[in-house]
Amino acid sequence: MAKNGSLQCSVITPEEQVLDTTAASVVIPAHDGLVGILKGRAPMLCELGIGVLRVDSVEYFVDGGFAQVLDNNVTLLTERAGAADKINRSEAQAALAEAEQMPSSDERSAEARHKAIARAKVRVKLASK
């Protein structure tokens, strides 16, 4: 439960609970742009994009999914997530190079390539900070 003046933020993947903390502010990467959340935010459910989750001043990689805001609790369900300081820059750059080499001969492979490139670019950006 969130303490007075704060939010409770949880990030859950199929493998583990990546984050469970209190925060003064949360910025989520919704599929159509960033959404800032403070205490008292109206209930919300949205689709996540590939991007950066910011909990106070700490950044995390988020790979799509869904977010719910209800009663000062922010819950993100995502396929993959991780703290920015745990991302290896050389691995992220290698993943970007590999993604750029993926074929895009049909709609399905073009979409997979696009998502892989987006995922790798966010990881490279976070690892470069």
Would you write up a description of this structure?
With 129 residues, the protein is α+β, with helices and mostly antiparallel strands. The chain folds into 2 domains: 7-84, Sandwich (ATP Synthase, domain 1); 88-127. It contains 2 helices and 8 strands; from the N terminus they run E-E-E-E-E-E-E-E-H-H. Strands 1, 2, 3, 4, 5, 6, 7 and 8 form an 8-stranded mixed sheet that branches. Strand 1 and strand 2 (17-23) form a beta hairpin. The longest helix is centred in the C-terminal third of the chain and has 21 residues, at 107-127. The mean pLDDT is 92.
**What's the CATH C level of the largest domain?**
Mainly Beta
The total tally of domains equals: 2
Oligomer status:
single chain
CATH A-level architecture of the largest domain:
Sandwich
**Intertermini distance:** 32 Å
Question: What is the N-to-C order of secondary-structure elements (H for helix, E for strand)?
Answer: EEEEEEEEHH
Beta content comes to: 35-45%
- Binned, the helix content reads 25-40%
Low-confidence stretches: none
| Radius of gyration based on Cα positions | 15 Å
Number of helices: 2
What form results from the Cα inertia axes? globular
Describe the main β-sheet briefly: 8 strands, mixed
CATH superfamily of the largest domain: F0F1 ATP synthase delta/epsilon subunit, N-terminal
